[in-house]
């Protein structure tokens, strides 16, 4: 990712590997400059002013010794294959905001991570960082813009009612193509709304990942009327963009009401403008001249402290300078494990449940009612976490 950033800003860069560490070179002002993303520092020569290269660090190991850490990790690993030849730049790092779109970026997350890598294989749950932020791009059709094109479609928005899409010429097909672009990696997408038509199959939705050269159908209406809820997580996760095509067949009086496309992306909170503090906070947005009016809103979400204590019979530890807390369960293949939840410190009447379990895992029971009337006492409840399909179970790390 750091090398992508260097390349995006026009700086030649390569990766450099140690025996069990990875660091980056940036080439500017006629020399290689060593940058290490882990401590987020440039490495300096003995004068504490000259930016060092990888070779300089190897010739003077003291420069690493004085920084602490594992010196052997910096011993040369495999020979770098990077050269001064050409390098393909990454995807566009700009963040376009077009008419009909709303974008939200936050320091908190809603649990959506891009769980795919390489040939779109799942990433082990244990490797998903516990501290990341989610943002959203919400699109609702308003007119033909840079974000979307319309062919033989009318957009009607009577008063405050949801906008509807229908055919301009009922004897011809109508098509809307929405083009999603994002500098951050995508993690989820959902299309919602409602429809009515004369027959099933009159409305279809398709996806393209090569700018419209080929399309894959993702959904078609199963009934003459109903709700639209198309989850495209598996198709768009771990990508930086996609095109969505909505087609209305001719002669079917097809209509879509309240169409909304909600795309979720992943962002590191460390890349956002610092931490907010008590009192006034100022954030400056910088961009090119807007073609249409742009409204921005900054919102503080207060996280209230509680006297209620919740503890689990897990391996429990903090990460990221105590900014994230993780409870870890390790279960053997085809195995099961008890999850014990203890509550104390505050009167409480409610339900306890285990949710968002990995695919193939179930909780028995799904939910338990709890009641605690004396703050100085403790109440406990117990669940059994097990595989729903023991034959396909794999070792895994389950986090709360």
Biggest sheet layout: 7 strands, antiparallel
The percent range for strand residues is 35-45%
| Structural classification | mainly beta
CATH class term of the largest domain: Mainly Beta
Low-pLDDT runs of 5+ residues are: 82-87, 390-400
Total strand segments: 27
Q: Compute the separation of the termini in Å.
A: 28 Å
How many separate domains make up the residues? 3
Shape: globular
Tell me, rounded to a whole number, the average pLDDT: 83
Query: What is the alpha-carbon Rg in Å?
Result: 26 Å
The fourth-level CATH homologous superfamily of the largest domain is: PAW domain
CATH architectural designation of the largest domain: Sandwich
Tell me the helix content: under 10%
Kindly report the CATH topology of the largest domain.
Answer: Jelly Rolls
User: Given the structure, what is the number of helices?
Assistant: 4
């Amino acid at each position: 990712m750091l090398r992508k950033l260097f390349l995006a800003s026009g700086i030649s860069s390569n990766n450099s590997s140690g025996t069990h560490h990875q660091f980056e070179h940036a080439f500017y002002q006629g020399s290689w400059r060593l940058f290490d993303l882990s401590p987020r520092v440039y490495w300096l020569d003995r004068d504490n002013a000259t930016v060092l290269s990888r070779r300089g660090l190897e010739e003077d190991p003291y420069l690493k010794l004085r920084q602490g850490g594992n010196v052997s990790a910096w011993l040369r690993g495999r020979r770098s294959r990077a050269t001064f030849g050409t390098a393909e730049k990454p995807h566009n790092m700009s963040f376009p905001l077009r008419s009909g779109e709303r974008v939200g970026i936050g320091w908190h997350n809603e649990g959506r991570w891009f769980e795919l890598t390489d040939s779109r294989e799942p990433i082990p749950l244990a490797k998903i960082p516990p501290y990341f932020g989610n943002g959203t791009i919400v699109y609702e059709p308003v007119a033909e813009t840079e974000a979307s094109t319309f062919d033989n479609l009318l957009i009607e928005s009577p008063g405050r009612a949801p906008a509807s899409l229908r055919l301009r010429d009922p004897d011809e097909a109508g098509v809307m193509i929405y083009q999603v672009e994002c500098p951050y990696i995508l993690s989820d997408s959902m299309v919602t709304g409602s429809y009515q038509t004369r027959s099933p199959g009159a409305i279809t939705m398709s996806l393209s990942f090569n700018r419209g050269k080929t399309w894959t159908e993702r959904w078609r209406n199963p009934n003459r009327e109903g709700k639209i809820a198309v989850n495209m997580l598996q198709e768009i996760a771990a990508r930086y963009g996609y095109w969505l095509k909505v087609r209305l067949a001719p002669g079917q009086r097809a209509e879509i009401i309240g169409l909304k496309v909600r795309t979720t992306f992943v962002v590191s909170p460390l890349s956002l403008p610092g931490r907010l503090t008590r009192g006034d906070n100022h954030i400056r947005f910088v961009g090119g001249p807007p073609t249409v009016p742009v409204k921005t809103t900054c919102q503080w979400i207060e996280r209230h402290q509680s006297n209620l204590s919740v503890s689990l019979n897990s391996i429990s530890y903090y990460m990221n300078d105590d900014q994230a807390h993780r409870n870890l369960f390790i279960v053997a293949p085809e195995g099961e494990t008890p999850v014990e939840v203890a509550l104390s410190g505050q009167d409480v009447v409610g339900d306890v449940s285990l949710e968002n379990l990995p695919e193939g895992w179930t909780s028995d029971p799904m939910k338990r009612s709890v009641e605690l009337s004396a703050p100085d006492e403790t109440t406990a409840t117990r669940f059994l976490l097990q595989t729903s399909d023991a034959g396909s179970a794999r070792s895994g790390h389950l986090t709360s």
